[in-house]
Amino acid sequence: MESFWQWAGSFWWLIFPLGGVIAGGARALYASSERAAERRHERKLEKMRLKAGFAPGTGPTSIHLPAARPREVDSAPSVSHEDLLSRLFAEHDEITARWLDYELDVAKLIAFPAMSDGRQPLTAAFLRAKKTADALRPASIETHVGEQQISEYLDAVGAYAVAFEVAEREARRLRDSTFSEAERKKLDRAQKLLKVAVDESATQAERNIAYKRVRQELDGLIVLSDQAVEVLENQVAREIAPPPQDPPA
Fold this sequence. Notes:
This protein has helices at about 1-10, 15-50, 70-75, 80-105, 105-110, 120-135, 145-175, 180-195, 205-220, 225-235. It is an all-alpha fold. Helix 4 runs parallel beside helix 7 (about 145-175), helix 6 runs antiparallel to helix 7 and helix 8 (about 180-195) runs antiparallel to helix 9 (about 205-220). It is globular.
């Protein structure tokens, strides 16, 4: 064993290039997972096009795809603009609902703070994709829109879905790693106090005190939206149900 360590000691300089190789491999693996997420959403978007019988630059019922997939083209049903918009609205609303699940849930914001931090590059890209999709969304299903606008909206919804999944994966990977040790302790205290603030078995006074301390712990670390504060305050102010009473004799 001693001879092994003597040999290893003579090659100490290998630690540095090997460290770079390991770090580079980790970055490549993560980039590969990001590309895989994008490919999954591209396939999902393509399936939506096939089901709708629509592609950019073509009419909603005159889609042109490579000859390698003739059966898919033959089986793709033709749908009206209203049906296509209905499907796109549903996809759009689903992504927004998943985002609001983070934005309005303070417990999730504490656990995954990057989802509300516009300084994070992937979160910023998601917010830009959301803004684009929201801007291109027609007022209603009955709104008369051209094929080009529908095509642009379809692409925007697809980009919105990809951006959300990538940002969510990054936020779950980072968790609270971007904060210092002292800041992580404050987040942990805030998470514990939050459970008291929304605990129906606690007294109203206990919930109020816990709520104030949650806001103090998060101050300077996580910015809560007005909607998130309103949701939390409603949970804290919820009336405690009185204990059941025996019916009168």
